Amino acid sequence: MVIVMKPGAPQEIIEKIEKKMISLGCEVHMVQGASYCVLGLIGDTNKINQGQIEANDYVEKVLRVQHPFKLASRLFHPENTVVQVDGVKIGDGNVTIMAGPCSVESEEQLMTTAFAVQREGAHILRGGAFKPRTSPYSFQGMGEEGLKILRKAKEATGMPIVTEVMCQDTFDIVEEYADILQIGARNMQNFPLLKRAGKSQRPILLKRGLSATIEELLMSAEYIMAEGNHNVILCERGVRTFETYTRNTFDVSAVPVIKELSHLPIVTDPSHATGKWSMVDPLAKASVAAGADGLIIEVHHQPEVALCDGAQSLKPEKFARLMRGIEKLVAIR
Amino acid sequence: MVIVMKPGAPQEIIEKIEKKMISLGCEVHMVQGASYCVLGLIGDTNKINQGQIEANDYVEKVLRVQHPFKLASRLFHPENTVVQVDGVKIGDGNVTIMAGPCSVESEEQLMTTAFAVQREGAHILRGGAFKPRTSPYSFQGMGEEGLKILRKAKEATGMPIVTEVMCQDTFDIVEEYADILQIGARNMQNFPLLKRAGKSQRPILLKRGLSATIEELLMSAEYIMAEGNHNVILCERGVRTFETYTRNTFDVSAVPVIKELSHLPIVTDPSHATGKWSMVDPLAKASVAAGADGLIIEVHHQPEVALCDGAQSLKPEKFARLMRGIEKLVAIR
Amino acid sequence: MVIVMKPGAPQEIIEKIEKKMISLGCEVHMVQGASYCVLGLIGDTNKINQGQIEANDYVEKVLRVQHPFKLASRLFHPENTVVQVDGVKIGDGNVTIMAGPCSVESEEQLMTTAFAVQREGAHILRGGAFKPRTSPYSFQGMGEEGLKILRKAKEATGMPIVTEVMCQDTFDIVEEYADILQIGARNMQNFPLLKRAGKSQRPILLKRGLSATIEELLMSAEYIMAEGNHNVILCERGVRTFETYTRNTFDVSAVPVIKELSHLPIVTDPSHATGKWSMVDPLAKASVAAGADGLIIEVHHQPEVALCDGAQSLKPEKFARLMRGIEKLVAIR
Amino acid sequence: MVIVMKPGAPQEIIEKIEKKMISLGCEVHMVQGASYCVLGLIGDTNKINQGQIEANDYVEKVLRVQHPFKLASRLFHPENTVVQVDGVKIGDGNVTIMAGPCSVESEEQLMTTAFAVQREGAHILRGGAFKPRTSPYSFQGMGEEGLKILRKAKEATGMPIVTEVMCQDTFDIVEEYADILQIGARNMQNFPLLKRAGKSQRPILLKRGLSATIEELLMSAEYIMAEGNHNVILCERGVRTFETYTRNTFDVSAVPVIKELSHLPIVTDPSHATGKWSMVDPLAKASVAAGADGLIIEVHHQPEVALCDGAQSLKPEKFARLMRGIEKLVAIR
């Protein structure tokens, strides 16, 4: 950590801060330039409250040298984490495909789609039972009934299930039915939910928030890991920008950045990133070419009657075409 | 709602969509241009699932004419909502001041600050007991003990209390102690929390999310109101942009925009918006000049030892100076 | 174009606007809903001044149905444009590689890099002679001397040259030496420069502005095309967001979006998008997988002594590895 | 400047960088932490090419301590700069009002508006003769004829003129007619134009780019000042964000931030910031309350027939009301 003092900061204030930092267990190196005095701190600076230092009238700014995450950091854990669920691996160098409808709408709908995606090579079945919706007047998901249908689909196909958990109140029940628990973009900094997820035995699929930096995503993973659950899968699903043609701006750079900073697997969700089915194929391929460990793809046998996010769902035949393209890419990776 | 068909969309598809819309209770007006065929819908289009329409291969886009919120809309409720708590009004044309420390840290700290802000004219005491923090290693708040100290401060000063509620699990207890319940920026789209807030008898102070549009903020208010709680106070606290000198970019336009679109009171939080105490005074004044119904100001008697957000806290003497400036502004509004 | 009137707009105002639109050559369809009256316009709405309509106190908003670009639009020009220069094609389904240093620094530097990139399969040599720099104190490029060195490199290698043109004053001279003229991100809406480019016989490589929407990029292409030059190559090079780990956020979606909206070729610049050499390889591959027509890659034989943007330059051996990866991707596209 | 080495960087590389920095005239302080080695540099680091250092495979990142601008910095020039033109001062503690139509459309239009704004207390007349427009098919301004009309309005009213200069080619002619030369947001980083402006005797009104940081705005001012012209007036006119209700997001914080960082006057343009006339009044007041040195306000006697930006123009009677509000605010500032 580096503390930059304002030009003209009195010597006694600088010394006061120096002493305070030493008392917190840091070694302090003072460097006096022409205009600025700079204090370089060595030691466990994670304990230091940056805001307290910045509150000083004579402090210009505080620069961090180290990333604030540890358990999620590749620096302290160089080998890739491989998450396993029912024999399916995520993060082992292959591309794991999670596919299915946005929402579970009926047994017939889910079964039709589940068999369709399995036939084309999907490894994990996705489907929402509890749905976060911008409007209180939109379909909010089938709830526990949806979870039961997901369980049936798992029994019929053998595919493990990933589904969203929205709150502490329904955590236990979702945990009972699902194999991987998804925490959605809007909940990425729902800290009580993250803590609860950290106590779960299930792997957590953590989606990046709409305006979360990659560092904040890794800090949210850190919340889960700090409670003991190290099976965290990260997911890039687009961030919010000024561009309006796509629903979000898909940040494909997040894939190599996360590979650099962390040992956790990173998958992408091109369906939510763009909100347009015609963009799913090129962005899925871009993700795989950039090194993603997996993809989450929305598939619906009749998108035009889907109760949620039909605009971004692939029909099974388009999904089949995408899978053939992905296979070719994986072969040359 | 306006449906724009792709150029060259087959007549039978257009008619199919037309019939579907009529079956949903809409009147449909077809307008055929040189390249585009456009369908104008009349009726309660809130029931229509926009994604289903956009899922059609021949639909170019869907444009909404009406805002999706109703209970929060000034269109259906032209008079200003005035929220009252313990005799303090918010939204009645005056500027209501909520002030206090970011976090409750001790009885002595809160009492000192509480008396200081009251002396300078604050109406409501703020202070966090449950704190959302980006890092799991940061101070997370005193919890129920903090609530008890807030209660004592209320008894000593007579000022009502506003404090954050972070999750369903601790909702009941926060509701028991606090007069106004704050839902923080990161929870603006925590829909189960919003629904629970909608069942509360307490007014809700709802903060705008870091990358939430004003429409989304109003949709989150709609969630609360749809459950029966119409006492919602909105709060602008800065949005996330590319600018790094301030922590967030304070969107002062949100004040007049919300006045135009909604009847709910709108207050601002210049402390969180910038993260710098030196910016609080000018932005507070800008808010009042733009028509804000109130301000939330962080005050700490010793910011340099604050456990949270010290960098943005005003010392009591700076708060006093700010209050004198606000009073002059209110006098000429 | 759709005009949405405010609820309660007087009938006479609506009729006044209707008449005005008819007088401008439009057919007007009025649709009266419960709260809103909507006017649907048919005809050449490009002539209509949207701001004039919105200036009316009773107009809520104006929605556009059609994109505002025509010459750049795939709707009116369904086949792909293929730009040709010295036998090299851009937009014909292959991936055209433009590579070289950020800036021309000396004859030795350019020649070394030129031969290196040619050996690995690059088609076009890039190199800046006039450099736009954020600071007036940074190296501003070698100017005409740099152009002469580029010319020598072309003579030695046979590769055509792409280089930036920064202003009208130096347009003629850059045009004399270069084969493709690049207009940089900061000049994307330098309209006099675009008009001048439209009068050139040289193909123009137009980079997307830091915060330009895709529609605005296409409107800038329209400026060039409207003056008669239809050889425009578009370039995605990252947009500005809140994320700070990468210099910009690379919007890979721009590739398929532009393929959908326009017939012009689209290439990407992963070097400038991220500002980090370690990100160039994955983002270049992502671009190709998403359908890009070409890549611009910064290569420097000694990045640590580069006068400009060394942090994002590949060494020749890393460029060679990237080229092998790209070739495999092209083979399966 | 602080260089952070990657964990595990070899000692010889660290020493090589150290020597290089010493050879560039810096004093280097090495601080070795548990994971990171950090080099603190003292001396004139503006000469150091940050990219060259970052190009090193073992460098994690480079942190800057000092702002990169000097002439524009308050640190080296503590007193406020006051710009004077024809007896009108900008930056002397008062609020200078620049008002007039977006574009000059005819002598009658300009004269009507000029007398109207003067009557209400405006100090400077604004009006565009050369107009940057997103579409090549929009009205591009009257050019020199417009300048002549502006000159007539000046002769009739005595008010100095501010008008936009778009390029080098027309610089001389605009300079001949105008008193203050405006450089628009899209040209904020048109460096040849900035250099030309730096050679002018006229004050320059420099608008912040749509996605420019405040630091970049000050660096653009530095370009002008480095050429000898120190009469630069900065202008906040909204930045681009995800919010769509307003055209841009007006960053009122820019006012106090610039007051802190620079000695140059800062004015705001609430008309362009929002694109909506109903927002101009509250945002103008917010600007003044936050400490702005002036305002640029679009006024048109018939906005519904304005050839440009009618939606954001105030009618004279609304401008009069705004002026009365501003006067009250100025009185208590």
TrEMBL record, chains A, B, C, D:
Residues 82-323 form the DAHP synthetase I/KDSA domain. Its EC number is 2.5.1.54. One of its GO terms (molecular function) is aldehyde-lyase activity. The keyword Transferase applies. It is an enzyme of class 2 (transferase). SUPFAM superfamilies: Aldolase. One of its GO terms (biological process) is aromatic amino acid family biosynthetic process. Residues 1-66 form the DAHP synthase ferredoxin-like domain. Keywords: Transferase. This is 3-deoxy-7-phosphoheptulonate synthase. It comes from Clostridium formicaceticum. The gene is aroF_1.
